[in-house]
Amino acid sequence: MARAPLLQLSDISLTFGGGPVFDGLSLVVQPGDRVALVGRNGSGKSTLMKVMAGLVEPDRGTRVVPPGISVGYMEQDPDLSGFPTLGDYAASGLAEGEAYRVAMVAEGLKFNPETPVATASGGERRRAALAKLLAEAPELMLLDEPTNHLDIQAIEWLERELSETRTAFVLISHDRAFLRALTKATLWIDRGEVRRREAGFDGFEEWRETVWAEEDEARHKLDRKIKAEAKWAVEGISARRKRNMGRVRALQALRQERASQIRRQGTAALDLDSGPVSGKRVIEATGLSKVFGDKVIVKGFSLRVQRGDRVAFVGPNGVGKTTILKMLTGELAPDAGSVTLGTNLEIAVFDQTRAQLDPEASLWENLTGDPLMRVSGSSDQVMVRGNPRHVVAYLKDFLFDERQARAPVKSLSGGEKARLLLAKLMAKPSNLLILDEPTNDLDVETLDLLQDTLGEYDGTVLLVSHDRDFIDRVATATVALEGGGRATVYPGGWSDYAAQRVAPAAEGAATPARGAAAPSPAAAAPAAPAPKAERKGLSFTERKRLDDLPGVIERLEAEIAKLTEFLSDPDLFHQEPVKFRKATEALTERQEALARAEEDWLELAERA
Fold first, then answer.
1. Are 100 and 67 in contact (CB under 8 A)?
2. CATH 3.40.50.720: does it fit domain 281-346+429-534?
């Protein structure tokens, strides 16, 4: 016998700010559903979830929840007013004697229920909201970005909890690994329409591209039909004096249909200018130690970062990842040890606190007021990688419209603030990027673009992130901070680190030496790796590298050909000595990179 649905929305329509968010939307959530709710930033995911929770009343349509069914909602910005501590808020919906549930969840999420609400950070407030929902255990959980502000250990704990629960849930998240592990159905919001696919997030991108390709083909056929009918309407039919008015009305209907189609939102125009080439050695850190009070951040840590490295820093919240970044860039002095920065460095920083954005100022003012972006004598242009751009045109590159340009930054969503900060960062040339939690709040498409942009970036990247998939896609080395001053360098991304961390324990070997660094992160290795003969196949990062190498080799060969042609001019050395020197250095650099890429491809292809 079929079970009654937990939640049903029928013919929902909702309008905000003059434009429809949804029109005629219907969906059903069944017992046991594990649903990914996906879509671009601004597509209405959080709004739809609030409609599902009964917090937003639609203009038209019905919401039905059967009697006795409870629906719980974890919002991004919970209202904790009236509660003295986070624990009081989290336990507020529980019966007397059930407060122990909050303590159990708090241990997994790693937050202190005794923390006063007045002093709690935004991340602590969100964890309290998540703890409240999990402790209440409703029949249907609505989770809006539950992994934001959680470290990887807490995300893995939450992943295990949700994988073992029998409770149905609908989940919004940008964390691909989290979505792939948990979901069995996908709701996709695209231009006010919701499509459902009876499969989890894995494979969503292929499904989306198929839908869009079919849509483009249908639009192309409609355009051809309109063109043919319009030609008939102009020329008429030679055998008849009167035109077929039914056919004219049909042409008008076709034109209205075409006009009513909503164009897909474009993608942000992410681009990085690596600026001048830095020295081969970017950072040399030796014996770093840092203590705050009784807390040891790091002890005896050494690291060498070379040009082109992508180094990810992972570990629990509060372990000191941002502190180490600040020491490595010279912003903060270590208690012991030394940091030597390479030559010709131009550093750009993506700050997780968004401190570079003035929340009270408009988007326009945040860009034009930046001394590094200001165009002398102009109030409506900004300097973007050496070229003046109108501020609105540049904002449109990052998917902001003209109306938003004069709006205060505090009115933006988390994803929009992240895009605005990327706009500021990418306007300036740099050869060392410091990315502290860049993935928070960004949608999947923008994360894809950011990953591709970093892949084409000639500079060096230091990255802090709790997004395991993003680390796997970007990092060439991972520094794991595990508390107590311990920091270890592992080659590869998150999956490689996780495999190397587990392998020694599984084989009874010693754990890697703490705080020691190999000559380069890319060559770092644990002290007691598993025997090479026992390793089968390629890791995720290695497979990705093997797939990417043909394109890298092709690009390097093309650049070498151009540089060789440029240097073939016999008068270049005498007439343009600076250009000759820079071109010669660039040629040598690319020839070395090509040799390394070819060696990597041969090794990986043989192992594959």
1. no
2. no
